[in-house]
């Protein structure tokens, strides 16, 4: 008899359960795979009704209910292939409906990988939709939300279901991948999903009100499903589906409100922004949005006074009935006029700036603001010279925690007695962009030109985000000296060379703050400039809106200072490295160190380095392997991620300079603060992988989040060799 005889030739057909028993014995023997396949196909041919026979076998076994590859899945998949070769066995009419009713009892229990072949074999996509929806609803109301959604996706029922009802329990359980799969093929559903999520970000909306409807929900973690997570999800989906952010006004408003609060902190708590700079950012953030204008007035009442709030209310033509108590009366009395005191304060500030901060040692006419390729010619001739030393810095509009990296607006190149400011926003024509890209790539890849920077890796990452041409620029860079690395070496030697008598005015952070009357201790590049040149940088223009044109004179001078000071710091350190605790020639040591690291990543490059460079490289490695010197808490500054606020408070009690992210802050804000203020990032878990790539080596530390704050603090202090004395405890203000 033929192995695959027609079932009609076998009266009564083979018993499906006997076939199942035979296949089970073969399934346990790995060496019998070929025989298993032959026996399976022979069995299908011998069954009177293969479709009913499959259900008999599945109903009398249970291995297909568990995860992993099962015999039930194997038989089902083989039958699907066999039916393609024998289409005559397909059923129709009433008989098919009976089979479909039986298969649903299996679908509600099986793993997702078994659903597709069963849907195909029993033609469930052609079944009555109300019948299918009834089965899915039964699953849903029995608390099987995940199974109901998976089955809905497989049966393509989304158009006939309530999107919010189906997806809410999954969102509460952090199963966003299933929600995304549910709307994946329908742009209308994607828009509806984002509108639902945005509605949950209304100020009066409480997510806990939704959660109460699902009291018995497993794996619900209210600490994870919060406003911050919701906003991050919305921004990710907007980008993923390429939708207009205007679709989610509540999320956008909350993001802008967060930016406003940050601006108020920078202006009125840190006092690190000028009034003009702050006003520029506030107006740009608020725009014509009446809700944001109202929030601005409320913040002004909290941080300033009624008169200031009334002035802004007048500026926005705010209805009196919507103003907070007292502001309306102040607005009634307000007379808009220029104040002589403002001009006097400006003069006082300018005098203070010249006295207390680093001043650019070149005349104003030697600062060149370049906006066209023709204007670039003089810059190219001076910059692209072998042996040239260039100070490089970049400016971009601050993101204030928003998603994505800002594009570079200004590229500063400083050579001796000259500073060139390249307005990258103006190079829009394709021909000019190509020429500019070639110039920048030539500059950074030429090992004969020494490029000075501070945190240059972060600058290059922002440049790559600005233009795809620079995507691989970080790998091609040669001949750079990152003074951030030098700064780390200086900090290690700080306690030793502070005790010696130097020609340079070296002050501790505490001394500089006390004697100069600054509210905030100097950080980052400003602190390095203070250590080496005697005065810090004036950073009040750092958070300017660098995309607004024309740039103010203060911005131009600030940008020029940031690049030119690198030349002066480098020159001072190079004159007498030993005076600052540096053991070798600054440029040669750091450039060769970078080249050694680059070659280590490319084993096929067998070019040998000079022997002197080898010795220097070994010296650098040896120095790095030594334990770092003991430092006091006053010399240690950190920024704590928002899941480590307990650790932050504990370290502050011990005298450490601590900044902590708020609960709603994005993790990436920690990197922004660390780069601007020279702080070490303390984080935990997945954010560590993202943050460590955005700051210098050794500037990000992952803490064990499962431990208590005391154990975490001991771990941090030990790693960074911080020694706490009795006088350090509670030496800092605990209210921040």
UniProtKB/TrEMBL annotation:
<dbReference type="Pfam" id="PF01927">
    <property type="entry name" value="Mut7-C"/>
</dbReference>
<keyword id="KW-0540">Nuclease</keyword>
<dbReference type="InterPro" id="IPR036397">
    <property type="entry name" value="RNaseH_sf"/>
</dbReference>
<dbReference type="GO" id="GO:0008408">
    <property type="term" value="F:3'-5' exonuclease activity"/>
</dbReference>
<keyword id="KW-0378">Hydrolase</keyword>
<protein>
    <submittedName>
        <fullName>Exonuclease mut-7-like protein isoform B</fullName>
    </submittedName>
</protein>
<dbReference type="InterPro" id="IPR012337">
    <property type="entry name" value="RNaseH-like_sf"/>
</dbReference>
<feature type="compositionally biased region" description="Polar residues">
    <location>
        <begin position="608"/>
        <end position="618"/>
    </location>
</feature>
<feature type="region of interest" description="Disordered">
    <location>
        <begin position="598"/>
        <end position="626"/>
    </location>
</feature>
<dbReference type="InterPro" id="IPR002782">
    <property type="entry name" value="Mut7-C_RNAse_dom"/>
</dbReference>
<dbReference type="Pfam" id="PF01612">
    <property type="entry name" value="DNA_pol_A_exo1"/>
</dbReference>
<dbReference type="InterPro" id="IPR037432">
    <property type="entry name" value="Mut-7_DEDDy_dom"/>
</dbReference>
<dbReference type="GO" id="GO:0003676">
    <property type="term" value="F:nucleic acid binding"/>
</dbReference>
<feature type="domain" description="3'-5' exonuclease">
    <location>
        <begin position="367"/>
        <end position="578"/>
    </location>
</feature>
<dbReference type="GO" id="GO:0006139">
    <property type="term" value="P:nucleobase-containing compound metabolic process"/>
</dbReference>
<dbReference type="InterPro" id="IPR002562">
    <property type="entry name" value="3'-5'_exonuclease_dom"/>
</dbReference>
<keyword id="KW-0269">Exonuclease</keyword>
<dbReference type="InterPro" id="IPR052408">
    <property type="entry name" value="Exonuclease_MUT-7-like"/>
</dbReference>
